[in-house]
Design brief:
- The two termini are about 15 Å apart.
- The radius of gyration is 16 Å and the shape is globular.
- It is about 40% helix and about 20% strand.
- It contains six helices and seven strands.
- The chain has a single domain, classed as Rossmann fold (3-Layer(aba) Sandwich).
- A seven-stranded mixed β-sheet has the order 3-2-1-4-5-6-7.
- Helix 1 packs across helix 6.
- It is α/β, with parallel strands linked by helices and about 200 residues long.
């Protein structure tokens, strides 16, 4: 069975979508660990409730290259065929991504609103008439670029005329949960067989 390590920084609703998909058979994986750079992340509670081992590795006061090397070593000790960034709010360097196949979920369509605050920036752009839809994408993380790796899959999230930031954000999260699970299945189907 393929092994996932999920890296999180916040509440973990996307982690919960992975856990739920694993439990109901839509995602045939073993979640070998959840890592956070934030000891207060509620995602850690979600993982613990599901019986998944957790690790906290704070980046505060650390050089990025040294932190990412330690993070890569931690993932290696846990064991992973795929690393999933599900609300991981930190840019990874080559010291990490050169060691592990890594994918990232980003709440915008390809090429739009990279970095933090993408949902709010998309909503503001819609309000000012610049765009008619937002989106969600899952992409590979091959290097230190910000939300610009090769796209695995993406879906538009149209705006409704009476949208508030909260209603739009809720629809984005609903699409995120579905797209992330589908994209993990796509990637696992493309990886070489275990032991190859």
């Amino acid at each position: 069975m393929r092994r996932l390590v999920v890296m999180v920084s916040g509440s973990g609703s996307n982690l919960q979508a992975i856990i739920d998909a694993q439990a109901d058979g839509r995602l045939p994986v073993e979640i070998t660990g959840v890592i956070s750079n934030n000891a207060d992340a509620y995602a850690l509670t979600r993982a613990a409730n599901a019986g998944i081992p957790t690790s906290v590795l704070s980046h505060k006061g650390r050089k990025r290259s040294e932190y990412d090397s330690e993070l890569a070593y931690l993932v290696s000790t846990i064991g992973a065929d795929l690393v999933v960034l599900a609300g991981w709010n930190r840019l990874l360097s080559g010291n990490f991504v050169s060691h592990h196949t890594t994918i990232n979920l980003h709440p915008a369509e390809p090429g739009k609103f990279p970095g933090l605050g993408a949902i709010e920036r998309a909503f503001d752009a819609w309000k000012s008439g610049e765009i008619s839809a937002g989106g969600v994408m899952v992409h590979y993380v091959p290097d230190e670029g910000v939300d610009d790796g090769p796209v695995i899959d993406w879906k538009p999230v149209p705006f409704s005329i009476d949208d508030t930031l909260e209603t739009y954000e809720q629809r984005v999260h609903t699409v995120e949960h579905e797209l992330l699970v589908d994209s993990i299945n796509i990637v696992l189907g493309q990886l070489p067989p275990t032991g190859a």
